[in-house]
Amino acid sequence: MKAVELSEVSALVPHLKPGTGEPFLLIDRGHVVATIVPGDERDAENMLLSINAKFQAILERSRKRLEVEGGLSSDAVRERLGLPTKQSRTRPSRRRRTKTRRA
């Protein structure tokens, strides 16, 4: 992957404004050659994993294994690890906490 500071691509600076959420297409002779999409670090990580052939192969292998061998429910995993199941866990109160002032 290549990364370039926006300030180094001076022709693009006026067109890319933070916070607009608007995609930007780079066109060469009428054909789209790249798309710039607003994002954050999490978006970049997701995009890189989605195009990584090794990661995609791991996912596909896992899907096939799940089809053949089956899987465990989250309650079964909790039971194996000695953790309380969802039904037996206590849920936090949903009532709002009020702020108290200290004198």
Structural features, described:
The chain is of the alpha+beta class. It folds into two domains: 1-38, no CATH class; 40-84, no CATH class. It is 34% helix and 11% strand. It has three helices and two strands. The chain has helices at 41-50, 53-69, 74-81; strands spanning 24-28, 31-36. A two-stranded antiparallel ribbon has the order 1-2. A hairpin with a 2-residue loop joins β1 and β2 (31-36). The longest helix has 17 residues, at 53-69. The mean pLDDT is 82.
Overview in brief:
With about 100 residues, the protein is of the alpha+beta class. It contains 3 helices and 2 strands, in the order E-E-H-H-H.
What is the mean predicted local confidence, pLDDT?
Answer: 82
Distance between the termini: 56 Å
The major beta sheet can be summarized as:
2 strands, antiparallel
Largest sheet: spatial strand order? 1-2
Low-confidence stretches: none
The run of helices and strands is EEHHH
The percent range for helix content is 25-40%
Number of domains: 2
* Beta content: 5-15%
| Helix run count | 3
Using only C-alpha atoms, the radius of gyration works out to 24 Å
Counted beta strands: 2
Overall outline: elongated
Pairing-aware structural class of the strands and helices?
alpha+beta
